């Protein structure tokens, strides 16, 4: 099959022997939604929320966040939108968070570690997401998970937010709750983690960094940063098998998801969803249809 990518709009992501896979898109702000729609993605597999928090002097309000999430969710018109909670740390500056300089920001006070500590900040974001979840098909995803304990703490806070919104008479939806598998620890205990959540999404950018002990931002290490390393593929396979064993779905939202040299491998593993930059959706669809 040698077709123009534009001719693949509206077509299924299906292999020649009938295996279907979801192809979603990653976005970093509501401005990216046009490209998601243009490229016929099946949904948004990773909505990075950092843009709301960066380059300003105070945290974004619930209303401001709600307005962004609402716009994206409504424009996706019933297609799934997976919003990732704040994934910020000492490398991405937000003065109002009062983060100190760190020698190893990638291993530091970041992402869910900040959210579990600054509960008000976390709850404000969750309130905005829960409100948006009433308007479409929303999932919530938590970054940088390393333990079951963290997930249990998150779920207690999520329940508090839901109860408070309901008590206030606010309409909420029933979003799926998922976690990113982007630390080796999370992949290794994915059997236990799968019992706590509705889905996994593998973050291969950080999973590669932490598994190979290679700073993903250090250009001098580019030749060693190898996401095709057997160890990475073994961890992805482990997360995939443990997800399915426990009846939940699993996707990949790191850069590797769009690497068509591995599409066959991911389909063979049984990965349910691949989320890539909007401009890669159709080339990935083509790769799937050629399997
Ligand atoms: C990842 O780590 O693979 C990922 C998708 O998240 P980010 O690139 O935002 O860290
Ligand atoms: Mg990451």
TrEMBL record:
Its main location: cytoplasm. Its cofactor is Mg(2+). GO terms for molecular function: phosphoenolpyruvate-protein phosphotransferase activity. Its EC number is 2.7.3.9. Keywords: Coiled coil, Cytoplasm, Kinase, Magnesium, Metal-binding, Phosphotransferase system, Sugar transport, Transferase, Transport. It comes from the Bacteria. It is found in: Cytoplasm. It catalyses: L-histidyl-[protein] + phosphoenolpyruvate = N(pros)-phospho-L-histidyl-[protein] + pyruvate. Residues 7-290 form the PEP-utilising enzyme C-terminal domain. Belongs to the PEP-utilizing enzyme family. General (non sugar-specific) component of the phosphoenolpyruvate-dependent sugar phosphotransferase system (sugar PTS). This major carbohydrate active-transport system catalyzes the phosphorylation of incoming sugar substrates concomitantly with their translocation across the cell membrane. Enzyme I transfers the phosphoryl group from phosphoenolpyruvate (PEP) to the phosphoryl carrier protein (HPr). This is Phosphoenolpyruvate-protein phosphotransferase. It comes from Catonella massiliensis.
């Amino acid at each position: 099959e040698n077709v123009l990518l534009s001719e693949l709009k509206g077509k299924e992501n299906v292999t020649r022997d009938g295996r279907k896979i979801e192809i979603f898109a990653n976005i970093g702000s509501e401005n990216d939604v046009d490209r998601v729609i243009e490229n016929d993605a099946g949904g948004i597999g990773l909505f990075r929320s950092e843009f709301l928090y960066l380059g300003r002097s105070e945290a974004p309000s619930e209303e401001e966040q709600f307005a962004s999430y609402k716009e994206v969710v409504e424009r996706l018109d019933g297609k799934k939108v997976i919003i990732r909670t704040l994934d910020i740390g000492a490398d991405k500056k937000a003065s109002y968070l009062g983060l100190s300089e760190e020698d190893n920001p990638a291993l530091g006070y970041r992402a869910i570690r900040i959210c579990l500590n600054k509960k008000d900040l976390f709850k404000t974001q969750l309130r905005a997401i829960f409100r948006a979840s009433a308007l479409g098909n929303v999932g919530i995803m938590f970054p940088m998970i390393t333990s079951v304990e963290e997930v249990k703490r998150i779920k207690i806070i999520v329940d508090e937010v839901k109860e408070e919104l309901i008590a206030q008479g606010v309409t909420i939806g029933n979003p799926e709750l998922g976690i990113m598998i982007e630390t080796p620890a999370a992949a290794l205990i994915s059997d236990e983690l799968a019992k706590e959540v509705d889905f996994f999404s593998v973050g291969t950018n950080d999973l590669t960094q932490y598994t190979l002990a290679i700073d993903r931002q250090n250009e001098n290490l580019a030749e060693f940063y190898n996401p095709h390393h057997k160890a990475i593929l073994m961890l992805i396979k482990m997360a995939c098998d443990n997800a399915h064993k426990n009846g939940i779905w699993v996707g990949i939202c790191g850069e590797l998801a769009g690497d068509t040299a591995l599409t066959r491998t991911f389909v063979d593993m049984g990965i349910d969803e691949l989320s890539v930059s909007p401009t890669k959706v159709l080339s990935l669809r083509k790769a799937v249809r050629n399997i």
